[in-house]
UniProtKB/TrEMBL annotation:
Its main location: membrane. This is Amino acid/amide ABC transporter membrane protein 1 (HAAT family). GO terms for cellular component: plasma membrane. It is a multi-pass membrane protein. InterPro entries: ABC_transp_permease, BCAA_transport_permease. Belongs to the binding-protein-dependent transport system permease family. LivHM subfamily. The keyword Transmembrane helix applies.
Amino acid sequence: MSTLVLLLVTGVGLGGLYFLVASGLSLIYGLMGILNFAHGSFLTLGAFAGLAAAGAVGQDTWGGLAFGLLVGALTGAAAAAVTELGLIRPLYERHIEQVLVTVGLALATVALFEGIWGPNPRTVRRTEWLTRTTEFLGARIPNTAFLNILAAAVVLGAIVAFLKYTRYGLIIRAGVENRAMVTALGIDVRKAFTLVFAVGGAAAGLGGVLATQSLNYVSPHMGASLLIFAFIVTVIGGMGSLPGAAVASVVVAVLQQLANYFLANTGDFIVVLLLALVLLVRPSGLMGRRAA
């Protein structure tokens, strides 16, 4: 029983990491119709920047972790905003070119990160509490899992509140429905769309810093690895659906943990089979809108 509890809770914690990356992908695609393959680069850059910031205060202190999370989120937001302004905005309505540009940027940034920080993973120092476990229903759960769950819940609530209750959130939703009408009212929708990219990048940067705490290392390839599962989560949950991404993150991560333990490390294979099944049975995803 304790083993099952351990797998379930750590699976939900891993799902929290997946959601932090997938939330940005889902938000950007749902509101702007853009598939951003460079999203993992925001995560990696945020992770390295956050780690450097934490080191300036103390990597193994709570103050260092908090400062690292803040800097990681701001770095991811800045990188995403610059990408939207410089590369995506000139290519609106040109979806093939958008995909090619973001794929190229993803490949180029991995090479850039390797040139700056080297190709090998770097271990990180963590606060003492994050190196420990907490007993829960008879199982010893790594404390990093609880941190990931809390962060994912806060980010989900913050994004939903931003879209529902803020002026820019209303502009973004209105611009998605009828961009020409909103522009005719004298509102620059382009600024709102840049903000969407920044919010998604901030979530990715935050996820990058948390990933370093869970995995105990940072690597130039970290973003690319997590991006694969984030795309799977986004498709299974429904392209553009934040609640769908949240549900799919938990389903994918828990299934992955269970399969890795009970079926001899076949978690990745089982997740791909689930993706294929969803695409065959419900192409719009679990909570996505069906095509008209």
